Amino acid sequence: MENCIFCKIIAGEIPSTKIYEDNELIAILDITQTTKGHTLVIPKAHSRNLLAMESEPAGQLFSKIPGIASQIVKNLGASGMNILQNNEEIAGQTVFHTHVHLIPRYTEDDGFS
Ligand code: 5GP
Ligand code: ZN
Q: Which residues carry out catalysis (predicted)?
């Protein structure tokens, strides 16, 4: 989709730090690292947010979250992880292409909530 920053990242038109990719999605480091390893899981097919997705692609997306998330926790030695997903401006969505935040938590982090 034109003027969608995540579509441009998926197309390789804007650089990103990719940590995982398959036919359906990419996982990239968030440009703002809330904690070390803060990752965005982004389906390649454009949709505005989860509220606009059909259940089949949404199910495909979420079926991959546990594997990607647990790999990040293991690789970075995190103690846990917040998994967040914002839908519409009122809920904090700023980029209108569906994405899931994976935010590793560490015993020494500052305890944001
Ligand atoms: P939202 O607020 O929509 O749930 O999350 C959007 C996220 O995208 C924010 O955490 C923001 O830091 C991240 N973001 C915005 N622009 C870029 C970009 O160009 N590259 C990357 N890697 N992340 C971005
Ligand atoms: Zn898009």
A: 99 (tele-amp-histidine intermediate)
Q: What are phi and psi of 89, to 5 degrees?
A: -55, -40
Torsion of CA 85, 64, 24, 29, to 10 degrees: 60
Q: What are the structure tokens assigned to 109, written together?
A: 């982090």
Neighbours of ion ligand 2 (CB under 5 A): 1, 4, 6-7, 46, 97
Residue 112 has pLDDT above 70, yes or no: no
Ligand 1 atom nearest residue 5's Cα:
19
CATH number for the domain running over 5-105: 3.30.428.10
How high is the pLDDT of residue 1?
Answer: 76
pTM of structure: 0.96
Give the start-to-end residue ranges of the domains of the chain: 5-105
